[in-house]
């Protein structure tokens, strides 16, 4: 641990640090408990890609896989039993955080099967089943912020279940998510049911935006010999994601001031926090903690992979910056429409959502295949 743990400084400014990683050995080794106690980690997010890395090629799961095969379980049932156990155990470790924070933090997020991202009814059914079967108050069900996912968010919130709305890229997708949360709470309150225990986060993605936009900028730089065009294109590199996130936070503040939200606050509603996701810097030319430093602020969560947690504890430059440079953020996004730039931000966001679902579907399917392979090996032994 460093002399000044910058992660704890971030918490003092109203932002919670969650970790974007979960594996059984993390739980069993005591490492997860240590991260809570020493690094101030306040929650965990998981996704199919994380579980694929955790389970494939890791002998720690073999005994349970073998037991599942002997019990005649289907491969999908075995997969779920493995991840549900990990989620339950992590929830139990984070239970004190959940209680001490009065239900603000201490959550473990688990995603509904990614191949149902465009099926509202299936998403609702699976979210309810996951919540029921995991059986922990501090589990948060991840639902993609697709056009079909948002009505599911509304229904699942109305059913009293915590939701992490994931794969949000555009500011409009965040606004739609916030109102889906509000409508869900309103529906529940209208039935006279308690809403004060329900928590939600809106997972707003960052580095993937810069990766895609930077590729487009690079192609345009190569295709022009205009000095003014090159200057404009270079000025945008690595800056779109943070500008986009600051504008989303600005919208969050507006929604918080609305009468509809204030009515729910009076009934005990918890704010749906913006959660910064995809926060590892992909470009080695950029600062490794840039998606942390620039977006610290009240009522937010930043979910960091382990390497970024270590980097941030060591050298994050902590200050409340999420509401600074707003004029510049708007000007930067507006500059994408410049005739010498011409990047359609809506098209970028649509593409990222499609790719984002695919990035979860592929490891999900790959994990099921690797489980089948492992099952064959274990049966053969």
Descriptive account of the structure:
This protein has 381 residues and is α/β, with parallel strands linked by helices. It has a single domain (6-207, 245-323, 352-380), classed as Alpha-Beta Barrel (TIM Barrel). It has helices spanning 6-12, 24-28, 31-39, 48-55, 62-70, 75-100, 120-134, 149-158, 171-190, 207-222, 227-236, 240-256, 259-266, 290-293, 306-315, 326-335, 345-380; strands at residues 15-19, 44-45, 108-111, 139-144, 163-168, 200-205, 273-277, 300-304. It has an 8-stranded parallel beta sheet. α5 (62-70) crosses α17, α7 crosses α8 and α10 runs antiparallel to α11. The longest helix has 36 residues, at 345-380. It is globular, with a radius of gyration of 21 Å. The model has no long low-confidence stretch (mean pLDDT 95).
Overall pLDDT confidence? 95
Tally of helical segments: 17
Count of structural domains: 1
Q: Using DSSP, what is the number of strands? A: 8
Low-confidence stretches: none
CATH architectural type: Alpha-Beta Barrel
Which homologous superfamily in CATH is the superfamily? Aldolase class I
CATH class: Alpha Beta
| CA-based shape | globular
What is the structural class?
Answer: alpha/beta
Radius of gyration computed on alpha carbons: 21 Å
Biggest pleated sheet = 8 strands, parallel
Instruction: Output the CATH topology.
Output: TIM Barrel
User: Strand-residue fraction?
Assistant: 5-15%
Order of helices and strands: HEHHEHHHEHEHEHEHHHHEHEHHH
- Largest beta sheet: strand ordering: 1-8-7-6-5-4-3-2
Span between termini: 43 Å
**Share in helix:** 55-70%
């Amino acid at each position: 641990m460093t002399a000044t743990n910058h992660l704890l400084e971030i918490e003092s400014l109203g932002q919670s640090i969650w970790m974007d990683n979960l594996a059984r050995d993390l739980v069993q080794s005591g490492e997860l408990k240590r991260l809570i106690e020493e690094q101030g980690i306040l929650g965990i997010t998981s996704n199919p890609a994380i579980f694929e890395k955790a389970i494939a090629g890791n002998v720690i799961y073999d005994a349970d896989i073998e037991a599942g095969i002997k019990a005649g379980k289907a491969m999908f049932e075995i997969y779920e039993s493995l991840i549900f156990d990990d989620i339950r155990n992590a929830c139990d470790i984070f239970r004190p955080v959940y209680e001490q924070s009065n239900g603000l933090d201490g959550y473990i997020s688990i995603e509904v099967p990614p191949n149902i991202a465009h099926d509202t009814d299936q998403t609702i059914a699976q979210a309810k089943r996951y919540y029921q079967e995991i059986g922990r108050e501090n589990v948060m069900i991840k639902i993609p912020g697709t056009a079909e996912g948002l009505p599911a968010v509304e229904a699942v919130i109305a059913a009293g279940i915590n939701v992490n709305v994931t794969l949000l890229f555009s500011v409009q997708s965040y606004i739609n998510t916030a109102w889906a949360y509000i409508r869900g709470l309103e529906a529940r309150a209208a039935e006279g049911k308690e809403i004060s225990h329900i928590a939600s986060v809106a997972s707003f993605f960052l580095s993937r935006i810069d990766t895609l936009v930077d590729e487009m900028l690079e192609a345009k730089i190569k295709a022009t010999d205009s000095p003014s065009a090159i200057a404009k294109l270079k000025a945008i590199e690595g800056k779109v994601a943070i500008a986009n996130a600051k504008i989303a936070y600005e919208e969050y503040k507006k929604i918080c001031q609305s009468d509809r939200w204030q009515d729910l606050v009076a009934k005990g509603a918890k704010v749906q926090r913006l959660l910064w996701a995809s926060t590892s810097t992909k470009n080695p030319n950029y600062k490794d903690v840039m998606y942390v430093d620039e977006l610290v602020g009240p009522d937010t969560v930043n979910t960091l992979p382990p390497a970024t947690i270590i980097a941030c504890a060591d050298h994050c430059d902590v200050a409340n910056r999420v509401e600074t440079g707003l004029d510049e953020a708007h000007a930067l996004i507006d500059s994408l429409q410049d005739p010498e730039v011409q990047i359609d931000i809506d098209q970028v966001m649509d593409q990222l959502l499609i790719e984002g679902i695919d990035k979860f579907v592929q490891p999900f399917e790959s994990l099921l295949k690797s489980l089948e392979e492992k099952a064959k090996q274990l049966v053969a032994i």
